[in-house]
């Protein structure tokens, strides 16, 4: 059975889809067999994948969608066939999220560096905890060196979840590549390459130590 990662955060626009697709490509480039599942009716990850398919002959990632309660069966199938299954979820934290949380080994909670994002984290952490699933906060759209980044990071550290050592910085390349059905690792080499590789390694190490 492969590992299942759910990306969840009640706050809209926190970077769930960006994190999900960049990890998917990151794990694929690290030699893993990867499936991405979109459970968000907005279908952003699905649009990303369709755009990717148009540009690519052979898909390197499997893609699937499922509605809330269809997730359980679909994830099982994908995890049987792949090393890593990444589930992108809608911006809400309610009982619809439960099947994805229940099916996952690790819950990643992106926090775009703002207090608003941080305030929204607690509901997902509570739901993950209720399913006894470990959660890891990932700082996104991070502006290193700012007082805000330091303040949000220190408040995040007080929460009942591990905080990823590698934050995703605020970089145009993430927004740009997403719209092209690609990921930052597929753009010309820049600081985002190292960032995504280190984040993939950290998530991998976390999965191995569960
Ligand atoms: N690290 C980043 N650097 C720059 N822009 C980013 C970063 N992460 C996300 N964005 C941008 O922020 C916006 C929201 O990101 P994204 O769609 O990934 O969030 P989301 O949590 O999936 O949103 P929703 O809640 O609507 O599903 C997008 O325009 C995306 O390109
Ligand atoms: Mg999204």
Explain what this protein looks like in three dimensions.
The protein has about 210 residues and is α/β, with parallel strands linked by helices. The protein has one domain (about 5-210): P-loop containing nucleotide triphosphate hydrolases (Rossmann fold). The protein is built from eight helices and seven strands; from the N terminus they run βαβαβαβαβαβαβαα. The chain has helices at about 15-30, 45-55, 70-80, 100-105, 115-130, 145-155, 170-180, 190-210; strands at about 5, 35-40, 60-65, 85-90, 105-110, 135-140, 160-165. It has a seven-stranded parallel sheet with strand order 3-2-4-1-5-6-7, with helices on both faces. Helix 1 (about 15-30) packs across helix 8 (about 190-210). The protein is globular, with a radius of gyration of 16 Å. The model has no long low-confidence stretch (mean pLDDT about 95). Bound molecules: adenosine-5'-triphosphate (ATP) and magnesium ion. Magnesium ion binds near residues 16, 17 and 40.
How do the strands and helices of this protein lay out in sequence?
Elements: E1 3-7, H1 16-29, E2 34-38, H2 44-55, E3 61-65, H3 71-81, E4 84-88, H4 98-103, E5 106-112, H5 115-130, E6 135-140, H6 147-157, E7 162-163, H7 172-179, H8 191-208
Parallel strand pairs: 1-4, 1-5, 2-3, 2-4, 5-6, 6-7
The structure holds adenosine-5'-triphosphate and magnesium ion.
């Amino acid at each position: 059975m492969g590992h299942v990662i759910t990306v969840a955060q009640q706050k809209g626009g926190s970077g769930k889809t960006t994190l999900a697709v960049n990890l998917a490509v990151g794990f694929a480039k690290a030699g893993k067999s990867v499936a991405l599942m979109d459970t968000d009716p907005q279908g952003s990850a699905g649009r990303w994948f369709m755009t990717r398919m148009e540009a690519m002959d052979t898909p390197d990632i499997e893609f699937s969608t499922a509605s809330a309660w269809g997730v359980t069966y679909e994830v099982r199938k994908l995890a049987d066939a792949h090393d890593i299954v990444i589930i992108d979820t809608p911006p809400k934290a309610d009982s619809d999220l439960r099947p994805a949380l229940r099916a996952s080994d690790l819950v990643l909670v992106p926090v775009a560096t703002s207090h608003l994002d941080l305030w929204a984290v607690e509901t997902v952490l509570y739901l993950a905890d209720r399913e006894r699933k470990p959660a890891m906060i990932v700082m996104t759209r991070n502006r290193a060196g700012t007082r805000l980044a330091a303040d949000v990071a220190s408040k995040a550290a007080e929460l009942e979840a591990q905080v990823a050592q590698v934050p995703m910085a605020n970089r145009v390349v993430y927004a740009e590549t997403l719209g092209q059905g690609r990921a930052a690792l597929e753009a010309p080499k820049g600081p985002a390459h190292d960032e995504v590789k280190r984040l993939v390694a950290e998530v991998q190490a976390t999965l191995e130590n569960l």
